[in-house]
Amino acid sequence: MLSAQATDVSVNVATRPLFEHVRTPRQMVDFGEDALRDAIKTIGLFNTKAKNVIALSQALIDRSGGKVPRTRDELQSLPGVGRKTANVVLNTAFGEEVFAVDTHVFRVCNRTGLAPGKNVDEVEAKLDKIVPQPFRRDAHHWLILHGRYICKARLPECWRCPVIDLCRYNPKTPAPGAKPSAARTATPRSSAARTAKGRTASTRSANHSRARPTRPR
Ligand code: SF4
User: Fold this and answer.
1) Which residue in 125, 97, 90, 108 sits closest to 215, CA to CA?
2) Which residue, of 47, 128, 203, 216, is most buried by count of CB atoms within 10 Å of its CB?
3) Residues with catalytic annotation?
4) Substitution candidate for ligand 1 out of 104, 105, 107, 150 with most atoms within 8 A of CB
5) pTM of the model as a whole
């Protein structure tokens, strides 16, 4: 809930001291919206997030005695909880094989051609269809990390990418100081990559650095 439109670093800086003394929904409600707003003011959208966290905490107390529910419907009925947040909770807290598609996962899946889609729901559905065991539980974590540290939004670092030969994105980013043609000549080896010309328009649009995932209305 706190990470939307905020960096992980900013969230960690704000939440580390907060979670030292606020650990339950009851404690969060007692902490109060004003104090929470002040505690997370370095995070984007902190006003709305503080309001949602307090409302969420109160709802957890009222509905389930402070326990986090483990069904998608119950989770998504809570204030400020959408499908992605519900998937994160289902996966990391309850071990379910679901795929939380954030901006990093959306970008990587479209650029590479792994699971292209016009919106996050399409990408999630494709990941669910194609990701095999034993990778289903942790796939979305790896995709997030790949997008955050290598396949970056503004400039993918293709020259040091371990899956460059499987990726459909073109042109590949050359190493700093290298001639552009060096990285562009990387040859796909997978059958999926060999069908790169069949990319969809949505895939191509997601190649642009500012591409943002959306949910269908
Ligand atoms: S080769 Fe480049 S575009 Fe493809 S996954 Fe790696 S970093 Fe991303």
Assistant:
1) 125
2) 203
3) 84, 102
4) 150
5) 0.79
